[in-house]
Amino acid sequence: MRYLDEMKVELIAIGASILASGGGGDPHIGRIMAINAIRKYGPIPLYSVEELDPQDLLVSTGMIGSPTIMMEKIPNGNESTIACRLMEKRLNRKINAIYPIEAGGINSLLPLATACQLGLPVADVDGMGRAFPEFHMTTFHLDDIDASPFAIVDEKFNQVVIQSKDSHKTEKFARSITVQMGGAAIFAAYPLSPAQAQQSGILGTLSLMQMIGEQVEQARRDKTSIVDTLVSLLYGQVLFRGRINRLDQRSDDGFTRGSVSFEGVDSCEGKSYRVQFQNEFLLAECAERMLCCTPDLIILLDEDTGTPLLSERLRYGIRTVAIGIPAHAKWRTPRGIAIAGPQYFGYASDFKPLESLNAAEKER
């Protein structure tokens, strides 16, 4: 066990904004909530899954809905504790630890604030290893672990608990309810045992995000390249450098959807690029040629500041570096690709690993 203080939360927020792949909600909101909770209640215990009691109950909490709406529809700070109490009432059990459902944005940081408020530890595990737009897109669902009961609470304390036959159906019901709640709300879901988390989760995610934050901050102090740091640390590849020249962005069915286009700069001058998104960046192309696609990660950085760009904060004229990162091996299985690959989102392309796409480009 170790403790998360304000500085560690700051570092985790950096890592969360990078692994979010453009989604996951604004980490700034979650960072403030977690830091305020630590100032009030003290540092947060962080346990590895192996350190938990075999009888413990783990529950995830976070935001569901459109990140664009969440920028204006700020949580009041009590929704997640109410959602957790609903979960306990439904299961007739006390929650023993909180964990983030994904690695990204507010959904890596809100669980820290919730755990702190409830006096609980955080488990160092998640269900995605990145951020995805839909709640059945978890490594738990790959092993047929249900997201239900799925408790949803909005800022007016409207409350709904969903019990469904599988996580995909739960996602559909939860998304519809979230739209009726104004497009964004807070959830508690995916109750697990430590054995299930060990078998089906992605371990050490919060530690990884903290390490990413440390490496990025070191690069800033040393005035070295943040892009090179991330490419080396995460086995990534630079996809292109460009300037945003067109943006199609909308809130639709509880998601931030659209595409962003770039005119190439530097070595990419004269080329055109496009990235499509549904909360997260899902497909990067150059003249219809695929550069990277989900479930691999597409990360857009503001080249001037090294700051990761969220899909809801894209703006014309930003000079951008696009980086591709290989997804966790669980997502590159046939079932992982069926659940979170490009064809699930309606793209015609088959999934091709980032490495193979890059190798093909080098042969040109």
TrEMBL record:
<dbReference type="Pfam" id="PF20906">
    <property type="entry name" value="S-Me-THD_C"/>
</dbReference>
<feature type="domain" description="S-Me-THD-like C-terminal">
    <location>
        <begin position="166"/>
        <end position="354"/>
    </location>
</feature>
<dbReference type="InterPro" id="IPR048350">
    <property type="entry name" value="S-Me-THD-like_C"/>
</dbReference>
<dbReference type="InterPro" id="IPR024071">
    <property type="entry name" value="S-Me-THD_C_sf"/>
</dbReference>
<protein>
    <recommendedName>
        <fullName>DUF917 domain-containing protein</fullName>
    </recommendedName>
</protein>
<dbReference type="InterPro" id="IPR027479">
    <property type="entry name" value="S-Me-THD_N_sf"/>
</dbReference>
<feature type="domain" description="S-Me-THD N-terminal">
    <location>
        <begin position="8"/>
        <end position="163"/>
    </location>
</feature>
<dbReference type="Pfam" id="PF06032">
    <property type="entry name" value="S-Me-THD_N"/>
</dbReference>
<dbReference type="InterPro" id="IPR010318">
    <property type="entry name" value="S-Me-THD_N"/>
</dbReference>
